[in-house]
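Technical note accompanying the year-one report. For the benefit of new consortium partners, we illustrate the data format agreed upon in the data management plan: each record pairs a sequence with a structure-token string. No post-processing was applied to the example shown here.
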Amino acid sequence: MALADLLSRKLVIVTGKGGVGKTTVTAAIARALAAAGRRVLVCEIVPTSETPSQVTHALGGPAPGEEPVRVEPNIDVVLLTPTMGHRRFLQDTLPLKVLADAAMRSQGLKRFLIAAPGFSDMGVLYRAVDFMRKPLWDTMVLDSPATGHALALAQIPEFLARVILKGPIARVAREGVATLTDPAITTAVVVTLPETLPVTEALELAKGLEKHRLPVTGVIVNRVPKDPFSADERAAVKKLVAHGSSVLGGRELSRIERSAAALQLLRERGGRQLFELEELEIRGPELSRELAVRLSSALPPSALR
């Protein structure tokens, strides 16, 4: 996957199974785009504003809130919560802002908006689209919290657009569908690990997103183990392991071969661009900085400004 493919998009959705390093990759993509001169808003989907931020651990800087916070040059971070999305929707729909504020103080309405099927995801999507209307950022990088959430974002607006045909909710649903399904505006990046099960799940996720017309640019394989063996060394270690010998490096060789098999599966069945990120010993903000450098290496000089 080439970073150049993300430069022209307004919305980049980073998704994948939990535990694959999705948030770190989100931070790395944001840093790489910022280094290319893009003004980036990193959006983290959370249930409430009190939810601890995972992006903070990957980017560093101050903890984000429901309004954008600058963490470093060209990068702002914000929490996307259903409640704030609902509030912004009511503020845009009702004739007076005070009416929206009064409505959001109603506990019954709050419970309905959170519990009603699709309304929670619609709140998140409305808040994201609301930010996209502003000329303050070139690209929004959205850290989707789980595989199912990305699929829900792709499905819910289309569902509501079919069942609610008129009124402000129908308008929001149509706008959400138009935003998510326009390949010139939106793309998704699926993050996985170089193991058979995560790769299989990543392929299924990409297929599901595309089924609902959400464009997928490619797959990023995170934590790919470095292969320190030459062909002769690999053959020698495999021979010793096959005879039952306990050899230093035997377990690592097995992991490297599993990784190679998973990557081959992606190449054969993926049909999408593939980018590999080598496993590193560093963690936190330093890790996302180093991964950003590696992502940026795929950029042609003409893409930089």
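Partners are asked to follow this layout when depositing records. Confidence is low (pLDDT under 50) at residues 300-305.
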